[in-house]
Amino acid sequence: SFDGQLFKTIMKQIEISIKNAGDIKEKDVNFKYGLFIKNKYEYVNLGNYFIKDIEDSKKKNEMLVTGYDRMIRFMKIFKQSEIGLSYPCRLGKLTQRIGEICDVELYNTDFFNSDLEVSEDFFSKQDLTYRDILDKIAQLTLSTIFIKENKLYIKSVTNEVLERLDKSYVTDLVIKEKFGPLNALVLGRGDIEDNIEETDQKSIEKVIKEMFNQIKGLEYYAFEASDLGVLWLEPGDCIELGDREDNFYKSYYLKANITINTGIVSDSEAEMLEESNTEYKVTTKEEKKSSKNLTEEERRRRRAILKKRKLLKEKEALKNAKKEE
Question: How many CB atoms lie within 10 A of CB 4?
Fold first, then answer.
């Protein structure tokens, strides 16, 4: 099973009920699903999972084994001393180094914005995990990041439909709200700093324009459905879902709970994309230098001032709009 969103990381989880778990706790175990076809077994490789918990159910005389894919290796605190990179560095190089530290090979090294420059260490100022940083990388690379074939996969979000699932595959389809079409992009770094700092305004505008062109017009429907266990789909796949009247709705494969017994069934869904209203700001070299010496109290005070200025601008704009009416 997995539960995710676009422009985020996704970690897959496995739960298996067995009679005897043996000595597998805290170990990396490979799981396969066997299909008996033409008098022989064919196996689907489900990947490796780190066994985190084993719960003994004496009433059922079985054990519930819970494991997580290799995304769990990134859930440790970031340390600049481990990274060992000098800044500025390329985003692709930083991603590759994070993979090396967490002992997970990259599935792909060529992805959107991989050559984007990271000007300084923005991460040590918070208690961020390597997965937290991967979440930020997912936003900058306009991707969904997950484990594929035991490797870290940076999967670009695309509007291109990869699979059409009609009523023969999908049941109990409930179509919810529609997101989009996306028509604006605002960048920010949240609490890492007040805002992204950069001296070259043209390069900022170029990055924003290129990112916006990548996802301009993004739209999809949130949904809930049951299906026959579409194991060939990957997290983040763009799909079309057909209802009983053969109406089709575009969405993304973002959440699934797959049950394997004598057969395969699954519950899947996609939720609405979370929106944020962050602000992008340009600072001079002098401002950038002085900001490094600010106390946390001063940072909070400046953020409050910026927020107040933004609210005043919005009120002024609303006031002018009413006058024009």
Answer: 23
Which residues, other chains included, contact 303 with Cβ-Cβ below 8 Å and sequence gap of 6+?
Answer: 194
| Distance, CA of 297 to CA of 89 (rounded, Å) | 30
Torsion on CA atoms 101, 124, 275, 236, rounded to nearest 10: 0
Q: Which of 93, 94, 154, 87 is nearest to 130 (CA)?
A: 94
Report the predicted TM-score, pTM, of the whole model to 2 decimal places: 0.77
**Tokens 């990869």, residue?**
162
C-alpha torsion angle, residues 50, 139, 190, 78 (rounded to 10): 30
Report the candidate in 120, 121, 161, 118 with the shortest Cα–Cα distance to residue 137: 118
Q: Tokens 């805290």 appear where?
A: 26
**How far does the chain reach from its first CA to its final CA, in angstroms?**
53
pLDDT at 139: 92
pLDDT on residue 313: 58
Average pLDDT of span 224-249: 90
DSSP 3-state assignment of 116? coil
- H or E segment and range at residue 236: none
What whole-number distance in Å separates Cα of residue 142 and Cα of residue 138? 6
Encode burial over 295-311: b for 16+ CB neighbours within 10 A, e otherwise: eeeeeeeeeeeeeeeee
Please list the residues that pair with 49 across neighbouring strands: 29
